[in-house]
Amino acid sequence: MNMSSEGDRVGLDTLAGARGSTDGRSAGRAAGAARRRRVETNTVVDELTLNAWCAEIETDPTRIRTRFPAAAREIGRTPGTSPEPGAERVEDDVRVSLLLALGRGLAGDPDTLSAEVHDLYRFGDADERRAVLLGLGRLADAIGDRAVDLLHDALRTNDPRLVAAAMGTYAARLDPAAWRQAVLKCLFVGVPLRLVAGVEDRADDELRRMVADYAAERRAAGREVPADALPFLPAPTQTTRES
Question: How many domains does the chain contain in total?
Fold first, then answer.
């Protein structure tokens, strides 16, 4: 993960000032403030803390309950917010790392792993839920089909970032009918179909029929058909006028 030189300078300058203080407690507070500013304003990742948290979770999986929500604040986050469904964010990678540590800590106990993952999703905010969804593909072998209901929950929302995250590789575990409806949901909420894992391989005639019906409804209402729908539509027939 990339380091920000400007963020490093801010952090080092603040830390240097703290070292010059005669008050040890003030120095500690200044150092902590500098570290928090770096996390909040840069893509700097506190790798030492991340590794320590992963080791901690492997030893005591229940620690993820407090570490997962705090990850962006304490370890690293991408500055600002992005409405783009597929935007890559540092905090997603950090939280997925914690999920993988959870999987290692609960290896051979898929039911407990599923329970912990469900709680992280249920009690998490939108960013935390997105990270859970993104991590499911990496946990698929360990968790099996136990988290498919989380995909269904995300797909019932109109949040493009959650819908996109739900359509990663773990979505291969959706049954065909649910998967087709999920692809349509992507078209409805503006999730680019390039973010749907395996869409070209899994698309079938029934999906093409559904997309064609969707496109016909859009045209009848005088609305534009999303460009992502066009590859699934039959080629227009060409007619020649007889002279």
Answer: 2
